[in-house]
Input
Amino acid sequence: MDEQAVGADPGLEASRTAELADRVVANLQRVMHAPDETLQFSVLCLLAEGHLIIEDFPGVGKTSLAKALARSVDCAFSRLQFTPDLLPSDVTGVNVFNQRSNEFEFRPGPVFANILLVDEINRASPKTQSALLECMQERQVTIDGVSYVLPPPFMVMATQNPIEYEGTYPLPEAELDRFTMRIAIGYPPLPDEAQMLSEQATDTPLDRLECVASAQEVLDGIEDAKRVFVEESLNRYVVALLRQTRSDNRLYLGASPRAGIALLRVAKARAIVAGRDYVEPEDIKAVAPTVLAHRLILAPEARSSGLDAEDLVRSILERTPVPV
Output
């Protein structure tokens, strides 16, 4: 690694962002009995200006994690419960005629927030789901030909149940590709679950959770993560991983260039949270399954054999040469 290319003294930026991430993760631990890596992934997604989908069984704390992250940072928070009768205008907003001024005026929808929680995203119709596409990619909303910019930082956190399909509409690939990461919480270990029962029976920790970071600190952390140095060989390594997914006969659809950008942004966030101002191969390998797996479409033969997309990503990581 060329030390001069890394920069003279960006250690201050790395240390302040690492301290910010530790603060938020510690705050999440007060509410969530989940693996530290899962909680850290949610913070990395925020620092990478990404969007997060939490897919797990009912009752394991998907909504609690999203609400806890929102309460940990001093940002505007909004929540949408997706249902089959929800309209796109219920998400983005609508122009309403004002009889006094004799003009139409725009009334913003819930999407005009810094952190938007979308509960059961796969329960809304494809028409309503598509209302999020422009918001997530371009961070703006266009109504009747007029575009309205969403305030930064902007993050969509969506939940869905992977085992319940009745009355649901599977997310199209174009929308899944806009989600930077997909995580699962899982069931807590026996001691943690027993402790959780005791906590929830007497008080709700989420109600007492206080914010530990300002919106400006989050914006500074995002900018610090953007400035993390990436050696050219690591750029080629990411491209090699993407091309492996496109040529693997176990996959019907491989990872897109957008997936590579997301992978590098999250790897940068992981590096700076670790106190470094440069990306290492381990940063990419650590986040690749979470960033890539939900974007891949398995071939019918692979699905019938019970192959898991995350395992497939791990096997691709094993056989792709790592730059030295």
